[in-house]
C-alpha cells in the first residue's frame, strides 16, 4: 500500500511540475482544506521547547504534529495558519508549511517568496524564527537557514498584517550546494532566539512570484530606488520629483522624475545623466527594463548603463519618436548579456547636437521577467579575436609593464607615444582576415609584464559549455617553447576574477619554427583546474599573457584567430575519412599517396605535431595513444599501442 501511495505521489508531483510551466505565480498556501488544522504541515519539537499542535484524528490530543488553523485573523480567504511556540535553551522545534497535495514547486524561474504575518501583540523582529526550504529530493534537500527578522523592515505592530518579501536568490546563496530548486516541498520555520517566552504568529497567503520589479514609480515624492543619485558630470542637470505635467495617455500617475539640462556651453556632454547604487540589487534572470519617458523637444533620447557581473551601456530597442507624449522605452537585458544589476545609470538627453534647454521626464522604471523569451542554445564557437577595428592597435587590449621588463605598445591617441598601453596590430603576417596582434616583450629579473587580449566591445564570454581555446602564434625567428609566456583568463566579475596561470609551452609539442603559423589548443579543463576557486566561467573577459622566463632577450610573437569551441577534439570537420590511410612506425607517420601539410592532434585537442609530409612521411615522436591526423584531404585516426 505504501508503494502504491508513493508512486501516486510521484505522478501527482510530475503533473504539478508540468502544470507550473509558463506561469508567473505559484501558491504554496492560501487556505487549508480544514479550519482546524493544515494537513500538509508537520511539527517536530524537543522539550523543553514547545509548539502548539493539532492531531489529524481528533481535537484535544496532545500528540499531534499538525499546525492549527484559525478563521480569524485571516489576510484573505477562509483561514490562516497559527504558529504558537516557546523557544528554550536545550530544546528545539521546527514546523513545515507545504501545499495542499504536497505539490513539488519548480522555482527555477521564480524570484521571490511573499507571505503575510500577524502577531496579537507587538513583537520584536529579533524574536522571529529562522526559516529554510525543503525539497522532495536532492543532496542536500534543504537550503541554508536565514533569519526571518532580516526580511521585515521593523518590529511587528500588534494585530497588523505585515508582508514579508524574501528574494529566492538569498536562499540559493545560503548554501550553494543546494540545487534541488525544481522540487521544493515547502518552507520550514525553526527555533531561533531561546528566550523562554511563548510567541504567536499567524501566517497567510504564501506565494512564489517571478513578478516584475518596479524599481521606482516616484509616487512617494522621492527617489526611492537608491540612497543617493550621483549626477555625472555634476551640475549638468537639475533633477527633481515633480507633479506629472502630462497626465495623459499611458501615464496618468501623479508624480514623475524631471530632468532639466543646464547650458554648460562647450562643456556640455551628450552623455550627461546619473548613476546610482540600487537599494535592492536586480538578480540575474530578468529580460528587459521598461521606462516611461517623455521629452519636450524632438531630439532627446534615453540611454542606460547597467553594472553588475556585466557592465554595459546601451540604447533602447526603438528610439523615442514623440514630443510631449509619454512613450515606453524598452531596454533589452538579454540581448545585451546583462545578468544582475547593482548600479543603474541613465542619460536622459543622449543626443548631439545638444539642446541646452532640454527637459525630459522619467517614470515607472520596471524590470521585466518575460517567460516568452527563449534563450537560444549556446553556440559551438565563440570568437575572442579575429580582427581589430584598427590596423595600428587593438583597443580592447591592455598592457602593464614593470621595468626593467618591457612590452612594445601603442597609444590610442596617436602613434609614436611612449606611454601607450595597447597591443600593436600588424597587417602582415596574419593567419586570416586583415590584421593580427603583435606581442613584443623582454622579460627581465625584478621586472614584470602582462598583456590582455579581449573582444571588440569588451564582450563577456560564457564558457560553461566550451571545451577549449584555440589560437595561432607566429615567431619571426625560431623560438624555444620554454621562452613563451604564461597565460590566464580574467573575468568581468567574481572573487577571484582571474583563473590560475599556465605555461603556454605546455600546449606546444616543440619550439616554434621561424615564419610558420602554429595552432595552440588549450583544454579549458586545464584552466579551470589551475585554480578551483575560480568559478566566474560565464563572464570571461579575455586572455592575459604574462612574463615567464626572465632571459633579458627581446622576443616577438604574432597572435591571431582566438576562438573558444565546444568541440573536445579541436577539429571542426569529420574525424575520419575512409579515403585517407595512415599508420605510425619507426618515428614516422606514413600517409598513403599524400604530400602536403599535416597536423596531429591528441583526443583533447592539443596540437602535438605538424609539418610538411614528403612522399607521405612525417617524422614525429609520439607516445602510445590515439591521435587524429589532419591533412588537406581530410582526417584519419591512428592508434599507438
Helix content: under 10%
Q: Give the beta-strand count.
A: 44
- Could you report the average pLDDT, rounded to the nearest whole number? 89
The dominant shape is globular
Given helix and strand content, the structural type is: mainly beta
N-to-C CA distance: 58 Å
Question: Low-confidence parts, pLDDT < 50 over ≥5 residues?
Answer: 1-23, 569-575
Largest sheet: 8 strands, antiparallel
Put simply, the count of helices is 3
What does this entry look like structurally?
- By secondary structure, the chain is mostly beta strands.
- The strands form eight sheets. Strands 1, 2, 4, 5, 6, 8, 11 and 13 form an eight-stranded antiparallel beta sheet that branches.
- β20 and β21 form a beta hairpin.
- It starts with a helix and ends with a strand.
Amino acid at each position: 500500500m505504501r508503494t502504491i501511495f508513493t508512486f501516486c505521489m510521484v505522478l501527482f508531483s510530475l503533473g504539478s511540475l508540468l502544470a507550473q510551466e509558463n506561469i508567473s505565480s505559484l501558491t504554496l498556501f492560501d487556505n487549508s482544506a480544514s479550519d482546524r488544522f493544515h494537513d500538509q504541515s508537520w511539527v517536530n519539537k524537543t522539550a523543553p521547547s514547545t509548539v502548539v499542535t493539532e492531531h489529524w484524528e481528533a481535537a484535544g490530543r496532545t500528540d499531534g504534529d499538525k499546525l492549527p488553523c484559525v478563521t480569524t485573523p485571516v489576510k484573505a480567504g477562509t483561514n490562516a495558519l497559527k504558529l504558537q511556540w516557546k523557544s528554550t535553551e536545550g530544546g528545539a522545534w521546527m514546523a513545515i508549511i507545504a501545499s495542499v497535495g504536497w505539490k513539488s514547486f519548480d522555482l527555477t524561474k521564480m524570484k521571490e517568496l511573499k507571505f503575510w504575518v500577524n502577531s496579537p501583540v507587538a513583537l520584536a523582529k529579533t524574536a522571529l524564527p529562522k526559516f529554510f526550504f525543503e525539497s522532495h529530493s536532492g543532496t542536500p534537500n534543504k537550503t541554508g537557514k536565514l533569519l526571518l527578522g532580516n526580511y521585515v523592515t521593523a518590529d511587528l505592530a500588534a494585530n497588523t498584517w505585515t508582508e514579508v518579501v524574501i528574494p529566492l536568490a538569498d536562499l540559493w546563496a545560503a548554501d550553494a550546494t543546494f540545487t534541488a530548486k525544481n522540487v521544493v516541498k515547502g518552507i520550514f520555520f525553526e527555533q531561533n532566539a531561546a528566550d523562554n517566552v511563548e510567541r504567536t504568529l499567524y501566517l497567510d497567503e504564501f506565494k512564489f512570484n517571478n513578478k516584475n520589479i518596479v524599481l521606482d514609480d516616484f509616487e512617494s515624492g522621492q527617489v526611492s530606488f537608491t540612497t543617493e543619485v550621483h549626477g555625472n558630470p555634476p551640475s549638468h542637470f537639475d533633477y527633481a520629483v515633480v507633479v506629472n505635467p502630462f497626465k495623459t495617455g499611458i501615464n496618468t500617475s501623479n508624480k514623475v522624475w524631471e530632468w532639466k539640462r543646464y547650458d554648460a556651453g562647450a562643456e556640455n556632454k551628450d552623455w550627461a545623466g546619473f548613476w546610482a547604487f540600487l537599494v535592492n540589487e536586480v538578480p540575474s534572470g530578468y529580460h528587459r527594463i521598461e521606462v516611461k519617458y517623455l521629452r519636450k523637444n524632438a531630439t532627446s533620447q534615453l540611454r542606460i548603463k547597467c553594472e553588475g557581473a556585466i557592465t554595459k551601456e546601451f540604447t533602447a530597442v526603438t528610439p523615442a519618436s514623440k514630443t510631449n507624449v509619454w512613450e515606453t522605452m524598452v531596454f533589452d537585458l538579454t540581448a545585451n548579456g546583462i545578468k544582475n544589476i547593482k548600479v543603474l545609470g541613465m542619460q536622459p538627453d543622449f543626443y548631439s547636437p545638444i539642446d541646452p534647454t532640454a527637459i525630459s521626464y522619467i517614470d515607472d522604471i520596471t524590470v521585466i521577467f518575460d517567460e516568452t523569451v527563449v534563450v537560444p542554445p549556446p553556440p559551438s564557437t565563440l570568437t575572442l579575436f579575429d580582427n581589430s577595428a584598427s590596423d595600428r592597435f587593438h583597443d580592447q587590449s591592455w598592457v602593464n609593464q614593470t621595468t626593467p621588463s618591457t612590452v612594445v605598445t601603442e597609444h590610442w591617441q596617436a602613434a609614436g607615444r611612449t606611454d601607450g598601453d595597447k597591443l600593436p596590430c600588424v597587417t602582415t603576417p596574419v593567419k586570416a582576415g586583415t590584421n593580427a596582434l603583435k606581442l613584443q616583450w623582454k622579460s627581465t629579473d625584478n621586472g614584470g609584464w602582462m598583456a590582455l587580449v579581449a573582444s571588440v566591445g569588451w564582450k563577456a564570454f560564457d564558457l560553461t559549455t566550451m571545451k577549449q581555446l584555440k589560437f595561432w602564434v607566429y615567431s619571426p625567428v625560431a623560438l624555444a617553447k620554454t621562452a613563451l609566456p604564461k597565460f590566464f583568463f580574467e573575468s568581468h566579475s567574481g572573487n577571484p576574477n582571474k583563473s590560475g596561470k599556465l605555461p603556454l609551452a605546455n600546449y606546444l609539442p616543440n619550439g616554434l619554427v621561424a615564419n610558420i603559423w602554429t595552432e595552440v589548443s588549450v583544454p579549458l579543463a586545464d584552466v579551470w583546474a589551475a585554480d578551483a576557486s575560480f568559478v566566474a566561467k560565464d563572464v570571461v573577459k579575455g586572455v592575459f599573457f604574462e612574463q615567464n622566463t626572465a632571459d633579458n632577450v627581446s622576443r616577438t610573437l604574432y597572435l591571431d584567430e582566438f576562438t573558444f569551441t565546444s568541440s573536445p577534439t579541436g577539429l571542426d570537420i569529420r574525424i575520419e575519412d575512409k579515403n585517407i590511410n595512415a599508420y605510425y612506425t619507426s618515428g614516422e607517420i606514413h600517409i598513403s599517396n599524400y604530400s602536403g601539410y599535416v597536423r596531429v592532434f591528441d583526443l583533447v585537442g592539443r596540437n602535438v605535431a605538424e609539418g610538411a609530409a614528403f612522399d607521405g612521411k612525417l617524422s614525429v615522436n609520439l607516445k602510445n595513444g590515439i591521435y587524429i591526423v589532419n591533412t588537406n584531404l581530410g582526417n584519419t585516426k591512428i592508434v599507438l599501442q
